[in-house]
Every structure is written in structure tokens, then in C-alpha cells.
Amino acid sequence: MPGASGEMMPLLAKDGAHLGDLKILRDRTVEHDAAIRSISTAAYARAAAEALAAERSAILGQLVEGVIVADASGRTTFVNDAATELHGVRELGVEPDDYSNAYHLLTEAGVLEPWPRFSGPFLYYSGRRLVPAPLRAFIDFIKR
């Protein structure tokens, strides 16, 4: 019986003679099924996240523009081949305060370019200008 547990105990007569064995079972089906569901849910979530990451990597990896992706805290999580070629480095886990140093972002005078704090998605491209993503999409549309 799946999900059952218990111990085998000897069943003895008053004189101590062995009459047989006794096992008292406690049905653990509910706990067992809950554990299976939580494992299945976690495994499904992990598989879905891995599939999404592979899809993102495949799509962004095809772009000729350099793309560096950061998570909500600002740490880099993806760098495509074009960005690696452009910057000469592919570092993951870089914090926002370290972007300029890690990716060799220099001003024309050769000084590290300060990376401003911002909220929301921004694109960084070789012109060394930050542009909000909606504005960049508009600029790309107009260029066509």
C-alpha cells in the first residue's frame, strides 16, 4: 500500500507464546501525494524556466547587435556573442556599479564612463548613449 507506514510487532499470548505478528498501518497517502505534487510542481517550474532561458538565449544569440541582459537587481544574466565581440568580455553576475569596469566602457578621453542608476529597461549600444527601450524601438522604426 503506497503511502502507508507502520512497524511489525510480535503478537504474544498471556503465557508469552508467539501467536503471530501485528502491524498497525497509518495511511500517509495525503502526505505522500502532497510531496509528489510539490516535487512535480518544482520540477515543472524548473523545466519551464530552463526552456525559457534556452529560448531567450537562442533568440538573442542570433542578433548582430550586442545584447547584455540584467535581472531585476541589475546583475548581468546573459551576454550574446556580438556584445562579447564588441566589449571583448563576457561576464555574468556583474553588478550595476561594476558595468563600466567589467565591460570597458570608456569615454572618448579614455576614462571609465559612469553608469547611471535607472529604473526600467534601457538599451546600451555602441554610441555610448542610454535610450529608454520604447524610444529606441521608435528610433529603429523611423530608420526603416
What number is the mean pLDDT? 75
Flag low-confidence runs: none
The proportion of residues forming helix, as a percent range, comes to: 25-40%
Give a count of the beta strands, DSSP E runs of length 2 or more.
8
Major beta sheet, strand line-up: 1-4
Continuous helix count = 4
Outline the biggest β-sheet: 2 strands, antiparallel
* Structure classification: alpha+beta
Total domain count: 2
CA gyration radius, whole angstroms: 30 Å
Question: From the structure provided, what is the oligomeric state, counting identical versus distinct chains?
Answer: single chain
What overall geometry do the principal axes of the alpha carbons give? rod-shaped
Q: What does this protein structure show overall?
A:
With 144 residues, the chain is α+β, with helices and mostly antiparallel strands. The protein folds into 2 domains: 1-60, no CATH class; 63-143, no CATH class. Helix content is 38%, strand content 19%. It has helices at residues 29-61, 81-87, 99-102, 133-143; strands spanning 4-5, 8-12, 18-23, 26-27, 68-70, 76-79, 122-124, 130-132. The strands form 4 sheets. It has a two-stranded antiparallel sheet. A hairpin with a 5-residue loop joins strand 2 and strand 3. The radius of gyration is 30 Å and the shape is rod-shaped. The model has no long low-confidence stretch (mean pLDDT 75).
Quick summary:
The chain has 144 residues and is an alpha+beta fold.
Topology of this structure?
Layout: E1 4-5, E2 8-12, E3 18-23, E4 26-27, H1 29-61, E5 68-70, E6 76-79, H2 81-87, H3 99-102, E7 122-124, E8 130-132, H4 133-143
Antiparallel strand pairs: 1-4, 2-3, 5-6, 7-8
